[in-house]
Amino acid sequence: MKKIHWKKTMIGFLSLTALVLTACTDNTSDSNDSESGGKETASVLKIDVDERYTDYVNAIVADFEKEQGVTVEVTEKNMFDSIEALPLDGPAGIGTDVLIAPYDRIGILGEQGHLFEVNLPNDDRYDNMDKNQVLSEGKIYGAPFVIETLVMFYNKNLVETVPKTFNDLEKLAEDNQFEFENEKGTNTAFLANWVAPYHYMGLITGYGGYIFGEDGRDTTDIGLNTPEAIEAIEYASKWYQDVWPKGALDATSAENFMNDQFTSEKTAAVINGPWGAASYKEAGLNYGVATIPTLPNGENYQPFAGGTGWTISTYSKNKGLAQKWLDFVNNTKNTQTLYEMTAEIPANQETRSAISNGDEELTNAVIKQYISAVPMPNIPEMEEVWTGTESMIFDAASGNKTAKEAADDAVKLIEENIKQKYEKNE
Hints:
Layout: H1 7-21, H2 31-36, E1 44-49, H3 54-68, E2 71-76, H4 79-92, E3 98-102, H5 103-111, H6 128-133, E4 135-136, E5 139-140, E6 143-148, E7 151-155, H7 166-172, E8 190-191, H8 197-207, H9 213-216, E9 218-222, H10 227-242, H11 254-263, E10 269-272, H12 277-282, E11 287-290, E12 304-312, H13 319-329, H14 332-342, E13 345-346, H15 349-355, H16 361-370, E14 374-375, H17 382-389, H18 392-397, H19 403-423
Parallel strand pairs: 1-2, 8-10, 12-14
Antiparallel strand pairs: 3-12, 4-5, 6-12, 6-13, 7-10, 7-11
């Protein structure tokens, strides 16, 4: 099973922002065409598809062609390559009509004029969380497709009882069988990549911190240095200072260290995304999957609610037909096929509910964890959060700064960068 690694979302976000900002366009000129089809050339619909969905789309596309009396041209293309090409190929008239984009990019691309506003069906296939993932400034710029979030993987051969709380994990880390042989006094019973912001934000939000105020859009209200956020940073620091080996604090290799320890059965439990399952399965691990244990404050870990949605290029001449594709590809029948072929979890609520009744642990864990997950702010200023917090936990855990100093410095950097890049032109 091939899974997208959501760290790529951040990398794509950072590399594409400058390009996208320079290619903004008005998003309203073809609105009447979308509704009436009066100017559309609806004989051919062009769709860019990331490679992990190619077989799925090819399996259902013939039914759409027959139903609509059209031809669909499917191009296999990396999702981030499609996004990068959109502001250039679209105006040139050589771009795609439909493409897939991660949730944290959809609102941004829509606001910048590259995605067309779409309609969601008046049924129960999406809940409010799903709709909010593709909503920006009151407009919907995509149709929710799949969901994804961090979960806990554990080794069934090493854990008799599945850890339910972080207190359970702390006790597990007292077991001598998990002592790290190269560093006396350290333990690898439980590991997490908390030097990476994507992974540790769930800890901070679980403690009551937040990124931006007012539904993740108020950049004047940054909650990464609140007393609650500082408490979360202090808790993470204790693991690094009192339990984990030095390799866990190396930002360039921490994730590899975590996975190597887990696959070599020297670690009982890790926090990772669904993308980790492939390598764990390849290593022959007898692993289980569960929701992330509750935090010491009794609250849920609140990781990012990730996933992707189908979108329509604002430059498309076939917006009405593209809208029909979005409705078709995300209906219950087709999303059931999606799950059967890829094991990816559909946003479609009816399908999600049906598959949650099965015995697939990864599926059930992601669906349950998603309930407490938090949508990633889908505004351009989020870029400054990634750069501003990339060393925050390291600074505190290494002892270079106190937790408060590390948090204050991170927030100050974020505020300065936002002011310099976004407020000077207002």
